[in-house]
Amino acid sequence: MTTPPTAPPEGAAPHRSGFACFVGRPNAGKSTLTNAIVGTKVAITSSKPQTTRTVVRGIVHRPDAQLVLVDTPGLHKPRTLLGERLNDLVVTTWAEVDVVAVCFPADQKPGPGDRFLVDELAKVRRTTKFAIATKTDLVTPEQLGQHLLAIDRLGRETGTEWAEIVPVSAVNGDQVQLLADLLVQRLPEGPQLYPDGDLTDAPEEAIVAELIREAALEGVRDELPHSIAVVVEEMGLREGRPADKPLLEIHANLFVERSSQKGIVIGHKGSRLKEVGTAARHQITAMLGTPVYLDLHVKIAKDWQRDPKQLRRLGF
Ligand SMILES: Nc1nc2c(ncn2[C@@H]2O[C@H](COP(=O)(O)OP(=O)(O)OP(=O)(O)O)[C@@H](O)[C@H]2O)c(=O)[nH]1
């Protein structure tokens, strides 16, 4: 029997591929760790990731594996129905990835916010859970020991089984490679999900556009399966705001193909567009950590999916 050309050489470890996501309180060190694992160039793909509600933050390409790091919006104690629905969305995403890694900064004791997050995570049965003690360079070995014990305790108290508890410092690179290896070990066998070259610098505009598109598709996916495109026209911090009260101002256009679709997106007297705006705003705020002013306009780009010029304009 001949071996198919795609099979790994005999004795070689099988190629693995899959998704992991870092979660944790604001400032836990998630982005810095992502950068450390992926390399200096954090990447995002233009193609749609397999999981629907996530944004690809970076891709680790290795001969033996492809590890795709995705972002989910932050989890918050829900005060409103929308808040609850956003949290449900996060939990759904956790169920779609292979590993969720909770970051606990070593210079802070795990608190009620961490417990809430871990409690929610515990509901996601199948996904592998890692605990990461981040910023280990900021504490003494004794303090780190206490921290690891606290993480272990939190796991037991919430019924969460940590597959690994890994201390890392993204700043001095300590244990970052080990963490990458441990994550890869938990990925299923599978081919590369993205081509090697499929990386560009991560523009926050792309993330924002994707979040708006997701919000706009919510509930109308069947009616408008692929007809919505979003382009962020302008995005920047509003000038003249105090440093501790930044406001991210975003102007975006939502393109549909026909006027009937415009009606669906806008809704009765604009009610639906308002909901879309609110949901997107919450998502963007949760993702980027800055309060957002979002200005959304719906436009028709006739049959954009069939028009190469329009497609380019819309970033495809
Ligand atoms: N000393 C030290 N500082 C770190 C380390 N990792 C991150 N930091 C710092 O901690 C702060 C927060 O790091 P981020 O990576 O932005 O944290 P984050 O979890 O992505 O934050 P949000 O985007 O707010 O959720 C930054 O000032 C980092 O420089 C580390 O390993 N050691």
From TrEMBL:
One of its GO terms (molecular function) is GTP binding. The keyword Metal-binding does not apply. Residues 24-31 are annotated as: G1. It is found in: Cytoplasm; Cell membrane. This is GTPase Era. Residues 50-54 are annotated as: G2. It comes from the Bacteria. Residues 134-137 are annotated as: G4. HAMAP family: GTPase_Era.
